[in-house]
Amino acid sequence: MPPVLDMRDVSKSFGGTMALSSFSLQLEPGRIHALVGENGAGKSTLIKVMTGIHQADTGEILVNGQPVTFRGTADAQRAGIAAIYQEPMVFPDLSVAENIFISHQNRTQLINWAALNDEAAAMIARLGVTLDPRRAAAELTLAEQQTVEIARAISLNVRVLVMDEPSASLSDHEVQRLFGIARSLRDQGVAVLYISHRLEEIFALADTVTVMRDGRHISTNPVEKVTQGSMIAEMVGRDMTNRFARETSNDTGQVLLNVSDMARTGVFRDVSFSVNKGEIVCFSGLVGARRTDVGLALFGVQPADSGRIEIAGQPVTIKTPAQAQALGIAYVSEDRRKLGLALTEGITPNITLAMLPKYSGPFGWLDRLRELADAQGFRDRLNIKAANLSIPVGTLSGGNQQKVMLAKWLNTRPRLLIVDEPTRGIDVGAKAEVHQILRALAADGVAIIIISSDLPEVLALADRILVMREGRIVGAFAGEDATDEAVMSLAVAAPAALVQVA
Amino acid sequence: MRVPIATLRILVLLGVFAATVLFFASQIDGYLNARLFNRISGSVAVIALIAVGQAFVVLTRNIDLSIGSIVGCTAYFTGGILIAWPDMPPALVPLLAMAIGASFGALNGLLVARFQLPSIIVTLATLAIFRSILVQSSDGSSITTDRLPLWLTEFATRNALTLGDLQIRWIVVVSILVVLAAHVFLTRFRAGRTFFAVGSNPDAAAFAGLNAARTIFLAFVISGALAGLAGFMFLARFGNITVVAGLGLELKSVGAVVVGGVNIFGGSGNVLGVLIGAALIDLIDTSLVRWDLVSEFWREAVLGLLILLAVAVDTTVMRRILRRKPAGGGQ
After folding, report:
1. CATH number, domain B5-13+30-315, options 3.40.50, 1.10.3470, 1.10.3210, 3.30.310
2. B324 near A CB under 8 A
3. What's the order of all strands across the beta sheet hosting A268-276?
4. Which residue in A36, A90, A494, B274 has the most C-beta neighbors within 10 A?
5. Which of A409, A410, A405, A355 is nearest to A384 (CA)?
6. Strands A208-213 and A216-222
7. Which of B208, B322, B330 minimises the CB distance to A343?
């Protein structure tokens, strides 16, 4: 069968980062092609190039043997390529039928509702599902909204359908129905590109598997020729010489934080662990494993519903960030720009923001010289590169923004520091510096929790690694014993294997 | 040595102000004289007060459109109380006006901060409601100069000092003191810092343990109180209070705030700039009346253009500053 979509040596970079490098992929009609790779392997970029959201820097894309250029999603849609995502993109106030036909620009302006609803019902029936086309999309379950999105794609005569983590938020029963839809599309001659972190799904569904890593194509094989083990090895198989060096642990063995049976309904459950003074504990796992939610619960942003938290042996309640701060907890959030920094403000007020009482005298008069002195101290200690301390932090590089964030929370003199993705989007030099800062803090006796999707980082820093999957801790490793493959196979393990480990 | 953005902005504003004065001086005979200063400084005193109040609200990512109605209401009610109790100690009267204004502001603040309603809708509604209260109340009796105590109307023209022909009135001094106090509060006090933090990044403020709702409530109360003080000055200057008192001040106050360099999306700005913005707007407003080439009916349009220009420049500058995207690609 000739491929319906043929990508040849496609490259795409952002700034200095190669997100896709000479990537080639052929999708054949009537086949389900699975794509797997770690967080950050370049899967999202690939989909965005395929669907016209991003434009490739170099390389060729051919549809049915004809070279094409997509200037936007409309071009890709005309060529018969569409994608659906984990979070369905529907118009909540519009009906199912309206949602399906929203992209049909060339229909008449006068709507024949009866005909439209009938057509929509027929479209949905082709997927082997029943759904009232008059219902508002907001009333539908996530799985039903996904069905609406797929129906919309079919109504546009889609020949290539990309499904990006479609099963991540679905129940088992809904996943089975989704598989049914994917198979019926395949039988109708559609090429399906199926992306999932759940490796077991690939064996149940796919005909062919492609593994990608660091923006590169690693392998493409018929599903019969691969095993979970071989896929994992290819997903993580980095050049080990590239691994960050480990240093000796500062773990004092004195427990600072002890969490037992912490849960938040529908998010995470059975979370039990402890962190010692001077110990670095890393939470590893895939995106969506709910690691960040555990951090946010400990900082009181989204408090847990149940469970016990003890700090230095004392049971505590944490319902607000202010309470968490008073207990000596600091949280450096993953999303600097959204949750962490006041971008229009200078470096000094950002660093002192969480500690204003420290700088205020009678009636709240701020001691600006002391603020400046502390900010200068952090600038020297963390090597923050900036022309002066009053320039807006929004103008700094990612690495320097991250250092300002760290400074802001170190200024609260925490006993427990939670850092979410400490080095995402910053360059290698700044990354090494941030690691050094975190190690120095541990040496000072601070208990540190790092949430990171960067496995080499985790392996270099962690005294202990806790692996989360679907809202639960599914395993633990001592830092020096852990390997990429061991951590990754726990993070992607099949539910059956998960029960045995837990 | 680079000049900080905030300082640069004030210097640019001063330059624009000077250029505007020179422009009108070249167009209008006998323009530059003491009378111009005396006339403009009095009305700037009123506008600067409400503009500073508006600045507190805009800093927190909100807007107060009801400010003109609050000025009208406080002017009317303060006048009514003074007519009923003419022997009230003069020092109490401005405080009373501020309390009346603050209670109107507290209603706005409650609806916005506590019930999380959008401020543009809340204050659009209270703009109409407060105005209707004024119309209803003034139905029977209206406030006229001859019924007010003499000290009040004299206060409006009392000079704090005279330099040659230049008369610096007490209301101007009070207004400048308020601006300076607001400036010191915003830049040197802990409570002031939270206004910037809440407006700049509400989520980060919550992470830092700051109370955003309380800060927003406070902004509306301050805005109301300063509108109340402006209402008192309004009463002193004009004496006759009709139902249209303070009409259109919301436009002028928002204009002064954005021309003065407060980011309309919250989080950055300087009330010294707002003072210059208020002066610039009033200067143009007053001068257009005397400029033969352009009909005075264009005054509103010029104000509108000025606001558009200021917001466009500010947005472009801010976008350039914050343009950098986080490095790194997708997954």
Report:
1. 1.10.3470
2. yes
3. A268-276, A255-264, A306-311, A314-316
4. B274
5. A405
6. antiparallel
7. B322
Tokens of A315: 């049971």
Residue tagged 């529907």 (tokens): A90
The answer to whether B4 contacts chain A (CB < 8 Å) is yes
Of A491, A257, A247, A352, the C-alpha closest to B196 is A352
Query: How many domains does one find in chain A?
Result: 3
Q: Which residues of A touch B208 (CB under 8 A)?
A: 321, 353-354, 408
Chain B: closest CA distance from residue A20 (Å): 9
Report pLDDT digits (tens) over A416-455.
999 998 887 777 778 888 999 999 999 999 999 999 988 8
**φ/ψ of residue B162, rounded to 5:** -125, 130
Q: Which helix (H) or strand (E) holds A476?
A: strand A472-478
Which is nearest to A393 in space by CA: B192, B322, B319? Answer: B322
Q: Do B196 and A345 touch (CB under 8 A)?
A: yes
Choosing from A383, A413, A443, the residue where a domain stops is: A413
The verdict on A431 and A403 lying in the same domain is no
Residue A274 and residue A354 in one domain: no
Domain-embedded: residue A206: yes
Clarify whether residues A38 and A139 are in a common domain: yes
pLDDT tier at B320 (50, 70, 90 boundaries)?
Answer: low
Task: Kindly state the tokens that stand for B27.
Answer: 């167009």
Quote the pTM value.
0.77
ipTM of the complex: 0.73
**Where in the sequence is the domain holding A364, given as residue range(s)?**
338-413
Within-domain flag for A333: no
The full set of domain ranges for chain B reads 5-13+30-315
The position carrying tokens 């200067």 is B283
